[in-house]
Structure formats: C-alpha cells, structure tokens
Amino acid sequence: MSKYNDLWIYVDLIFKQTNQEKLELSFSQIKDAAGIELDHSFLNCKKELLNYGYKVEKIKLKDKKIVFSKVN
C-alpha cells in the first residue's frame, strides 16, 4: 500500500463526481486529501494512479499544482 493511496482514492472520487476529463489540484489540496506533503517519492508512485484509470499529466512546480487526467 502506497502512502499516496488516500490521494488516489480522492482523485478517483472527484473524477467520478464531476465527470471531467482533467483535474487540477494544488499542493495544499493534495496535502489535505492525502494527509501528507508531496515529496520526491511522488514521482515514483504516480504510476500507481494508472490502476485507477488516471495519470499525472503535468506537474506545475511554479504554480504548485498537479494536473490529473483520465486514461482512455
């Protein structure tokens, strides 16, 4: 089980509730959802999100946001 598991569940829930193709979350929203701050391990763990049918499309370090999208 990944330390980002709560985040993956949150992303899945938001996508199902909104039926959007893309989702942008700030680092602070991610911290609130996952209960932890992002660190370098996120880069290795982000592939786990594919199991839910989504991917990390873009990491905006300057804006401190991450864009998630559905995998078709």
List keywords for this structure.
72 residues; 3-stranded antiparallel sheet; alpha+beta; 3 helices
Describe the structure.
With 72 residues, the protein is an alpha+beta fold. The protein has one domain (5-70). 38% of the residues lie in helices and 25% in strands. The chain has helices spanning 5-18, 27-34, 41-45, and strands at 22-26, 54-60, 65-70. It has a three-stranded antiparallel sheet. Strand 2 (54-60) and strand 3 (65-70) form a beta hairpin. The longest helix has 14 residues, at 5-18. The model has no long low-confidence stretch (mean pLDDT 94).
SSE layout:
Blueprint: H1 5-18, E1 22-26, H2 27-34, H3 41-45, E2 54-60, E3 65-70
Amount of beta strand: 25-35%
Radius of gyration: 11 Å
Shape: globular
- The share of residues in helices is 25-40%
- Ends distance: 25 Å
State the major sheet: 3 strands, antiparallel
Number of helices: 3
Spatial order of the strands forming the largest sheet: 1-3-2
Order of helices and strands: HEHHEE
Which secondary-structure class do the elements indicate? alpha+beta
What's the mean pLDDT score? 94
Low-pLDDT segments: none
Q: Tell me the number of structural domains.
A: 1
- Count of strand segments: 3
